[in-house]
Each structure stands twice: as structure tokens, then as C-alpha cells.
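Give me C-alpha cells for this 478-residue protein.
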Amino acid sequence: MPDFDALDAQLPLPDSLGDDTATIPLHCVTSLDAAGSVVPDHREALANWSKAQGFEAKPGQLLVLPNGDGAIVAAFLGCETGDDGRPNPGFAMGALAGQLPAGTYVLETGLANSETALTAFLLGAYSYTAFKPYKRGPVHLATNDPGRERALIQARGVIFGRELINTPANLLGPAALAESALGLADAFGADASVIVGDDLLNSDNPFPMIHTVGAAAKDAPRLFDMRWNGGDDTAPKLTLVGKGVCFDSGGLNIKPGNSMALMKKDMGGAAAVLGLALMIMQAKLPVRLRVLIPCVENSIASEAFRPSDVITSRKGLSVEIGNTDAEGRLVLGDALALGDEEAPDLMIDMATLTGAARVALGPDLPPFFTDDDVLAGEIETASQAHDDPVWRMPLWNRYDNAIAGKVGDISNTGNMPFAGAITAALFLRRFVSNAKSWAHFDIYGWTPSNRPGRPEGGEAQAIRALFNLVAKRYPKMD
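Here you go.
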């Protein structure tokens, strides 16, 4: 069950201040002249201190101004100028929690794109503290900016996803992942169920690929299925599918040790869609939401599946196993087939799927694939507007024959050593035929080194962009 009180403790954006709360003004400025104009009584001290500290109000620069007694008079963050002429700090706000002295600051500046800036501040304050406490004192930021509430919603979703990804696999196996998802469903009054172990082989409701991938693990494979309705029976159907491989040894095609080190994050797709679902439900968006998560561990034992095995999928396609380390697309295939059966208006899957995507675009820029040009444009617009980077890659039809099997309909690795992210997406597309629109995101789910608003560790990539896309595509009616 998620600890939502602990989650909110990671969100230092107080909705009120006590009468005795000592506060420090924070100004976002685009120049030294602008900084001087907001502290006229300290203009000379600011000029001297800025020179001594090398502060020129460049984007991302921070200056803390003390008085003669060493107390902080004000803090200044250098910013770009937004399209509306107001300061736009962007994700530079995400560095403040780690740079400012502990205390409560009051944002004194109206910002361009404040929703993104405040979200960045909140995300920069996050730290995974299950085993090591956060050593710095807290930095709180008080503001009545209109972007505050949506920033809180988005930060909650991302942090929920980060917590799941950062949790070690000995504490977050398939059962624990499903329990966390059930806790989220319960918190928002959603209907949810879990199919476990051999019940996945029920001939009336089969999920043979999910069962096969997880069969060798002590923690049985399972499928989480959640429904939540934020509208009425005519509301658009939105289905989210997330890869929940809680640890990936590679199976019998075992990974080398250095490739296995971060495999606790192989459920990053599941974490991302759960974080996105949290945002959608908390914002009460008018959609009929469904979330499907195959929860498995890809282990080695006598029950493990083998290279050259052939599995008949839920959709009826026979899938030839070229490599047991290409397991994510197998469990997603069964889940996508289930979601596709009710022809959703929009279906999105998210997965830490291929190393080829990282080779092509690196860890910070997840590729996405869709045949829907309108949807692609909406994704790109939301990505740019909310500093949540993604990049469209092609579902190149001429590579479709590369996933042909020799004895099965399709192969989970294909017969070509190139374009691995594309052929994986083409494999998934075989399980989607009824959805009105579909997009696949091949995320990394991890930030390799600290950056403003993006601390090293688990990352629920692309879900802020997707939340804003959904909110714009399916707006609430006042």
C-alpha cells in the first residue's frame, strides 16, 4: 500500500504559513538591474556581493544575499525571459532544494510557465530515503501561483513512480508491485483485480506469455487490471499498459553482471503508468481509465523458458523465442491484446524495452512510436511545453519482415541485428488492431547523474507530457 503521507512529505510547497514562520524572499530575475530593483534598500550590497560571487543573473545562477549579521536578506535565481516577458526559470528551479540553505522561502516573482518551474522545484527536493536519511535541512517554498496545484499533482505522480523504481527487487517483486498498484486503486476508489500464477493459463482468459516469462520465479507471475471512471459511460476510453519486470536476469540467456546491475528498474514502465494514472485520477480527468500491468520476474530455474521455444499468445499469434532476454515485449504483448479487445480511444504502453533505444538517443530522451500523426504532434507539443523530452521514431514498415519467425508467426528477436528499438515496436504493434490510437514509449527509467529537478536514480519519464496531453485532449467541463 503506498504511503501517501510520506509521499506528500516529499512535496515542500506549503499551502499556508504560520504567523511565526520566518520567511526569506526568493526573486527570479533576468538581469542584475532587475535584482537591484526588488531590493532597493540593499542595492549597493547586492552589487558588491554579486561581483564577489560572480553572479550575473545568468539562467540557473543562484545568489543568496546576507546582511551584515550574516542573516539571509533574499535569494535570487537567474532566469531566461519567457514569451510573455516574465522570468522563466524552467527546470533550473529544480536545483534550489539542494543549493539553498534550509528555510522557508516565499516566491515573490510571477513566472512564465510557472507550472513546470514549480514541478521542477518539487522534483528536485525528492530523495530516496528508505535506507539513508536525507542529510540536508528542508527547503520549503511558499507561493499562491496558479500553477501550484497542477505542479503538486504532477510531482506526486513522478515521485510515486520514482519510489517504485528505486525500491530494491528483494522488496518489490511481482506480488509487492501488484500490491502497490492495488493500494493506488484503493486510494482513488478504482476497481482492480489481479490474476496470479496458473490462473493465467485459464483457457477462457489466457495470458500464456505472461505466465511463461514469470514461471521460473519463486514469486508467481500476475496481471494487474484496474478500471476508474472520471466521467460517464460515454467518456473516452484510455488504456495504459506498463512493463512490470521486477528483475531481469536475462533468463537462460543470462545477462553479464554489469548489465544486470540496474535491472531492478526493469519495471520502470509499470511505475511510469501508475504515476500517470495517479495524476489522471487526482485531477479527475473525464476518461474511462484502464491500467494493465504484467508483473513478473525473469529468473532461471527448471521452469524457465528456452531459446527456440514457441508460445501461442493470447492473440493467437505463435511467438518463437530467439532470446529469453527479450522478455518485456512478450508480457506486453498479452497485456496489449487484452486492452485492445475493448477498442480504447487511446492506448499507451510504456516499457524499459531495448538497449537499442539508449544507443540511439541516450538515457534522457525516450523514443516513442505511433502511426497516428495527430497524436504524435500532440505528444511533441506537450513534451516541449513541459520540458519532458521525448522523440518520435518510425514504425518503419519495411522492417516488419525482420520479426518473422522461422517456425512461429513472429520472433521476439527477429532476424536482423539492427534497428532493435524499431523492430521491438513493430512486434508490439502486432498485438494492437482495434485501438483507435496507440503509442509505445521505450523509456530508460533512470537518471544516471544529478541534474536540476532530476536526481540520480529512478525516473518516471514522459508522464508529465502525457498527463498534459490527456488533460488537453479530454478537458474537464466546468
